[in-house]
Amino acid sequence: MKKNVLIIGGGPSGLEAATILKKFNYNVILVERSSILGGHLAKWDRLFPYMEPAKETLDVLLSNIDGITIFKDTEVNSINLLDKSYNVILSNGITILADALLITTGFDLFQAEKKEEYGYGIYEKVITSAELEEYFKTLNNNKIDNPKKIGFVHCVGSRDEKAANRACSKVCCATAVKQACEIKEKYPDADVYCFYMDLRMFGRGYEDLYLKAQKDYAIRFIRGRVSEVSEDINKSLVIKAEDTLSSKPIRVTLDLLVLMSGMRPSSGGEKIKKMLNLMTEDDGFFSTKDSIYSLQHSKLAGLFYAGAATGPKTLPDSLHEARSAAIQIHNYLNN
Amino acid sequence: MIEFGFGISPSSRINLDDFDKEKWNKLVQIEPEILQCISCGSCCASCSGGVFQNVSLRSAILNIRNGKTDSAMELLKGCMLCGKCTMVCPRNINTRNLILSIYKTYSEK
Fold first, then answer.
1. Sorting pLDDT into bands at 50, 70 and 90, what band is B109?
2. Is A211 on the interface with B (CB under 8 A)?
3. Which of A196, A212, A248, A255 to mutate to probe the B interface, most B CBs <10 Å?
4. Domain boundaries, chain B
5. Could you report the per-residue pLDDT of A2-23, keeping only the tens digit for each?
6. B28 contacts chain A (CB < 8 A)
7. Strand, coil or helix: what is B53?
8. Which of A3, A12, A50, A101 has the greatest number of C-beta atoms within 10 Å?
9. What is the mean pLDDT of residues B53-69?
10. pLDDT tens column, A83-141
């Protein structure tokens, strides 16, 4: 009889792991709490650093899901650890006896309104990086009305003890630089500013993207955190920051401000954590068995992680983890 | 009038709304490499003039971008055009040429 593997979370990691586990001839069940598969990828327009359409990657992931049992709009109601398996009850009433569990619950975006000083939800022309991405997809957002001056604030809800998140969210720098180029493409006459603490362009091709942003798109990078945003009588935004390179306060009036929301542990993951008493680190993301060799293992036998459930990751990193988790699960079930 | 010794110190704040885009665009046109500066400080660290005088290409570029062109020119006055900064610039900017172009653009009143 085929063994059951239950995957919780239908984002890129969940889909990629499901595909591989199916090829290994397991009975794969995937649970997704929303009505769409693909997680954040499904909401994205283009991907850094080479501007590939997100849809192409998503289509590849979705092209291999035949033969996988997928429950959308379904949550996990309870999980009980039995002797050598997990008894999982879903919100649609179905009970699954899983020989292995893979948690791919990913991340939620930091709620930008919590950084009240940036005025999200208060001033009309302040939007989040996710909203800008949606605009690139749909070209429909009444807050974006032929802006002449546009700003990006890096590290919103990241590297910020006041936002209860000391950690770096890893992908926002590259996303900001990508989006800055894209908005400049849409509005070539606009001045575009990026307010950063330091640019973490660590991946292959990222530094090239940064150079392109400077050279070809004339993006102005200002090293300093925005301290506060206010609105003037014309509904324009007045930004105050420190230009730490010249040690002077800086002020600029903008028509649009984009907040680079960081990554927080997903609420779906929090629910699973409580059900099984799973461990998390200070950053709120799941603890792995160790930090170098066993990144897909949890402390519980038969329970594995992949993707941003264990901390901020780029899309390729998440896909690698999904493949790695599939192999680790295969090894576990054959031992 | 009696002097009470009170005064108002001028604001040191950078206001990007007052930035002279026209001159800047002119400079960028003849010297597009200025856009590539990452403010690393290699130019200043290798500057012989900077040991004795207040010479700083890094700060000069920054000052221009912040609309403080007079202080930028001041920071390049002591440059001897030796070209050491050109040899070390990690972004491959022809710094010597850039310094001359900055002079050309911003000494025209």
1. low
2. yes
3. A248
4. 43-109
5. 999 999 999 999 999 999 999 9
6. yes
7. coil
8. A12
9. 96
10. 999 999 999 999 999 999 999 999 999 999 999 999 999 999 999 999 999 999 999 99
Nearest chain A CA: its distance from B19 CA (Å):
10
SS3 A25: coil
Domain limits, chain A: 4-106+266-333, 111-262
8 A C-beta contact, residue A247 and residue A137:
no
How many whole angstroms separate alpha carbon A113 and alpha carbon A130? Answer: 14
Least Cα distance to A104 among A332, A260, A329, A335 occurs for A329
Chain A positions touching B65 (Cβ under 8 A) are 220
CATH superfamily for domain A4-106+266-333: FAD/NAD(P)-binding domain (3.50.50.60)
Q: Is B3 left (phi over 0), alpha (psi -120 to 50) or beta?
A: beta
| pTM for the predicted model, two decimal places | 0.95
Q: What percent of chain A has pLDDT over 70?
A: 100
**Which residues from chain B sit within 8 angstroms of residue A245, using beta carbons?**
39, 62
CATH class of A111-262: alpha beta
Decide if B107 touches A, using CB distance below 8 A: no
Spell out which residues of chain B touch residue A150, defining contact as CB-CB under 8 Å.
Answer: none
